[in-house]
Each structure stands twice: as C-alpha cells, then as structure tokens.
Structure prediction request, 325 residues.
Amino acid sequence: MSKVGIVVIGRNEGPLLGACLRSLQGTGAPIVYADSGSSDGSPILAASLGAHVVALDPSRPMNAARGRKEGTDALVRLHPALDYVFYIDGDCLLEPDFLGRATAFLDAHPKAAAVCGRRFEAHPEASFYNRLCDEEWNTPVGQADACGGDSLMRLEAVLAVGGFDPALMASEEPELSSRMRAAGWEIWRIDARMTQHDAAIFGFGGYWRRNLRGGVGYYQAWRKTRRLGHPINGTTLKRALLWAGIIPVLVIVLAFVFRRPTFLLLLPAAYALQITRMALRSGAGDIHHWKVAAALMLIKPAELLGAIRAALRGERQHSIAYKGR
Prediction:
C-alpha cells in the first residue's frame, strides 16, 4: 500500500463516515477527506481518525466531483510519490482484500487507468429502492466504459486528463472515464467485492431526487463529452425526452386538437405497455421485475427535469441530497 493514497468524500454522513475511515485505517495508506459543508462534525471526526481534511469553499457549488478533484490535489501535494489513488464515498466500507487485488491488477496492466470491483448495498432488504441500487451496481466483469464512485485509479492517467471535472453534479466518473479512454487508457472491472454502501433510500421521494440529480449529471456529462467523438448518456437523455416530454406533449395536443379528453388516457396506456414490455424482458413471473419496470418509467420525468435544469442553470448549483436515515 506504499504506492496508494485514498480520497474520501462526504457530507453529513455521521457514524457512517467513522465506519468508513476505520475500514481504511488497516491499509496504512494516507487518507484525505474532502468535506462538502457538513454540519454534523464530520471534519472533526475525520481528523481525529487520522485523515487530512479538505473543507470545500461554500461560496462555490459543492458536489462529489469537486470533492474528488480537491481531495486529489491535496493528496498529490502531500504525497507526490504515490502511483495510485483510491476513491471512496464516505457512506461506504472498504472490503479488506480489494485494494491488494486492485493494486496487483494495475501493476500487471500498464494500460489500465482504473479498476473497480463489486459495490454492494449493505441493507438491500431495508427498502425496494435500496435493492434497486444494489442491482444497478451488479455490472459485468471485464473491460468497461466507465467506473463508479469507488475505484482505484492510476494517478498518471488521472492527472494527464485533468482529473475530475468539478462542475459536474453527477456522472463525473463516466465523464472522466471517457476522457481517459479517449487518451488511450482502459477501464476494468474485476470479480471482487469492493465496497459496502448504505443507500438509505426509504421512499419514492428520495429515489426521485436521486434521479433528478442524475438527470443534471447526464446532461452535463453529455455536453462535455460531445467533443470527444463519443458522447455519453445520449441514449438515456433521449429516452427521458421521449417518455417524459414528446409523448405527453403529443397526447395533450391530440386531445386539444380533436377535443377528445379521453385521448389523455393514451399516456397511461403507453406507459403501461412499456412497463409490460420491460417486465416481460426481465421475467414477468417475478413481481419484483414489474416494480422495477414501473419505477424506471416513473422517474423519467425526474431525469428530464434534471437535464432541463442543467441546460438552464449551467454549473451554478449545488448537488441534490436524496438520502433519508
């Protein structure tokens, strides 16, 4: 671990932050904690557990990307001889064997810029939305287009492309991955348990806000990566525009033009057909697949509203909190 440094980000994570930092202490790696305006004493807790604390300036919009960017800058300034940096969110716990395996992978694959493993939800049984998050993170092993918020990265690759873009509210990891891939680097996922996460989403409101934030990031990252020749999030944005924009507007216009209010029933009918198609594709015999399909359709307006918000407000906004405890 002498070649690895760690950057932790967080805001008001409470006891979760303490558990996160304690899970990292056994690595012996230097730790930088970047705090996004916590009011629960997180910076004091982090310092007491041996982390170097970076407090983000509240006069500028705060988000995960900015935390990782400023945390990386501090880590490099304090420990310039490091080769790798491990990024982890303050609500996650590191699995004991992951850093050793990930470091060995980067040592053996000089073209690999980042490697990540399986992030899993600590309490998938606590809510339907926690389980959705856990399933979202169950992605294929092998070479990938992007990594997630927890990953081990080669500092040379990160610094060569300018690091995380502090203007992004979300999708900062896929956007950085796109720039690294455009520069000839590779992104990998290995078959290893990496981090345990606590989503703490117990209602549709939290899930809505999570996807509202996602919509902002989808648009920002899409706009930033267009010049690379392979923009990301385009398909996601098109689906949100179709289902939350074009189809509803078309149905309303038809009802108005033909003076048939019953035409408005076409919208829930279209949604029902799409939910059925998605559930059948996943396995209609399990009620969970129907609930997943419904949730993914019902948050399309949140994604579209987030994208519109990003287009109108640009980078003048703080990240959107979505968790409940």
Q: What stands out?
A: The chain has two domains: 4-202, 234-313. The chain has a mean pLDDT of 92. The longest strand covers residues 186-197. The beta strands are 4-10, 31-35, 52-55, 84-89, 92-94, 112-121, 142-144, 151-154, 186-197.
